[in-house]
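Obj: model holo form, ligand = adenosine monophosphate.
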Amino acid sequence: MFGLVSSVLAEKGRHVYTVEKTATVAEAVREMNEKGVGALLVMEGRRPAGIFTERDVLRRVVDADKDPALLRVAEVMTRHLVMIAPNFRVEEAMELMTARRFRHLPVVEEGEVVGMLSSGDLMRWVTMDQEEHIRQMSAYINGGS
Ligand code: AMP
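Output (holo structure tokens):
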């Protein structure tokens, strides 16, 4: 109904914000704030090694009383990454986020990460799609009267 995630990426752009797994949590948080994102893909060289999000800062750093200047991202990231392909449907991606209780999904094509989608990106896309649908319905109804 809402198309493929590749269309969302084409509109949003394919840039993925990353951090090296050896970076400190303080460095990662600075990067998130500078770029205005809630998640970073954690890299080990050229390989994705995990994901680190603002939720991890709350649960695994602040609530665990750990020092962000001393703690490495590798110690508090989520290692088991769930990723999707560009030909996933938008609804499937939303269902996956709801079922797994996270708000970020890296998109992988031929072994390479080509984008990162957040629940906010998908919500915006669905809203835009529905607004367009309403606009077309109104034009149809008004045109016919
Ligand atoms: P979020 O709601 O995206 O801030 O993340 C909630 C929790 O799920 C955090 O512990 C994240 O590290 C983890 N997480 C987020 N996205 C993914 C993903 N695509 N695969 C695996 N874990 C994730």
